[in-house]
Amino acid sequence: MSLIVPGLHLLALDCHVGAVSETPVTVGAGTRAFTLTQDSPRLVRGMDVTVQRLGDADTWMRGTVASRPWEPVRLIVTASAGTGTHDDWLFADGVLRWSTGERGYWSHPADDPPQAFWDGRLLQPALIRYDLFGRGTTYGQSRLEFGDVVLADADRAITALMDYNLSGRTLRLWRIGSDDLPFSAAVPLLVGQAASPTVSQDSVTLRLRGRGASFDVPCQPVLYAGDNDPPAGLEGTAQDLAGQRKPLVFGGTVREAPLPLVNAWRLIVQADSGPSDLLDLSDLGQPLTRGADYASAAEMDAVWPERGFWRVWKGDAGTYARLGATPAGAITGDVRRQPDIADQYPGAVMRAVVTGPGGLTSGEVDGAALDALDAACPWPVAIWVEPEETIAAVLDRICLACGGWWAFTPLGVFTAGPLAIGTPVMTLRRLTPDVLADADTFDILDSEVQQVGDEDGGAPIHAVRIGHTRALFVQPDPAGSVTAERRAFLVSGWRYTPEAADPLVLARNPGARLLTLETDQTSAEGAAALRDQQLALRRGRKRRLAVSTILPPARLAALCVGQTVHIIDPASGLWAGRDMIIISLAIDARRGAVTLGLWG
């Protein structure tokens, strides 16, 4: 059986060129000629590009490059704004297009984009891998997706890509049945991000990363300016807070958060960089007395609280408290961003993270999946973002607190769910003359039984306990007036559920182990529910497989880590069949082939 999928793959890559021309050119439609400065990147023939005046983004022309890289630029302008003749031009954002097949592909006049050409240089549309967690593991840190796109370049016509700004730019991949079909018939397969290319003797390779790569940045981008004008100011000074990240809270109540002193003269601390509820304030673990809230930042600046008291002011710029006396030690607080319990559930907190610092629109988020996660795991979660913690790391913490996972689909939509056996999206089995395929059954080309990569080599779990209600600032020597119960909490930093155990698993597997997960859960009830969920999911021996198959384009595009498949594979010892969770995907877009990492 041939593994080559008929039809064409079409790829579009956004870029920023950065070339400059000092040629006098008049704004308008038609052919325009430019000579680039010597140090400018060259332009690739067939690319769409916008050229604009330096420092004047309102004067621009957009068109298609009709010249080769070593020639003066000829731009076929199809749209423009502004008027006049100017000699200070910047070639800014562009779109590059390639296809498989030697002839390339032309879109139809009624398509969007109309009559665009995809050059036939695409040798490998995409090799990409997705992992829910570290390879072979089933909880912990998520893995970013990666892969390669390979382009033919024996004539050196696209080597100029090395000089473009491609890092983080959007790359889109489609498949179309033949080169005479309209672009509207193309099936979207993949949305990713490009990195810098590498050039060999006759090809260019683009490193491809999924959209999850954009989350590998600090979750809190806002820094203290350090520009207080004593005794006024809420930004610290150059000697203390300048350049440090401001506190940021998501979800429910974080306990004993260390609050930075943003104004040492007026004894003002900050609890959050947005409007939150500051529920309690403590000095060396001893709760202080709350006074009336301030009506404004000006009132907080002007009026001292009484000695032993503290008062709050909160607004869009942040949540602050002013102390009535110099503290004896560390000032900590219990801070809550969302008062409504439903907004503290894992899916709701994820939505706040990815649409806030993550920068996604609502249309780029699978809202139904997040709602389903909250329905399955209605447990309050609270996140205090650590100073250099990335968005991805924050999402990992939320997942650990609900036994879940997060990912981007191949089409670039953020999604999440509980790691659980669900309704299978397809069946995989070895097809023979007496076993026929149907719309939901696909052939197993190869399979391999693999070692589970969790700690202790995937040893069976016989018992689980969950850490919850964390004290963020551990105090080994709190104030003497602190109660014994509170002292124990401040010293240990955690509260734990009782163990839940399955004695039959231990009897069958003497090497079975206790699994302890320390989470951002804020309730004993939710932690107990997570404990029972994890024991039910993980007790006993689990199997991990790598299974290869070929799927139609629509099936390939709909496939996502976290889904469940049913597998019947005597070669793997699964004669009767088993439902298993997809924990990794390795996709070869050219062949339509995929290797699924399965666990269950």
In terms of DSSP E residues, the strand content is 35-45%
Structurally, the number of domains stands at 5
Structural class assignment: mainly beta
Task: Please state the overall shape, judged from the principal axes of the Cα atoms.
Answer: flat
Number of helices: 8
The total strand number stands at 41
Spans of at least 5 consecutive residues with low confidence: 1-5
Query: Which sheet architecture does the biggest sheet show?
Result: 18 strands, mixed
Amount of helix: 10-25%
Distance between the termini: 30 Å
Mean pLDDT comes to 92
* Overall radius of gyration: 29 Å
Molecular structure report:
By secondary structure, the protein is mainly beta. It folds into five domains: 8-215, no CATH class; 253-336, no CATH class; 341-418, no CATH class; 424-452 and 542-599, Phage tail proteins - horseshoe like beta roll fold (Roll), CATH 2.30.300; 460-538, no CATH class. Helices cover 12% and strands 40% of the residues. It has eight helices and 41 strands. It has an 18-stranded mixed β-sheet that branches. The protein has a five-stranded mixed β-sheet with strand order 20-21-26-25-24, with no helix packed on it. A four-stranded antiparallel β-sheet has the order 19-27-22-23, with no helix packed on it. A hairpin with a 2-residue loop joins strand 16 (227-229) and strand 17 (232-237). Helix 2 (346-355) packs antiparallel against helix 3 and helix 2 (346-355) runs antiparallel to helix 4. It is flat and about 80 Å long. It starts with 7 loop residues before the first strand and ends with a strand.
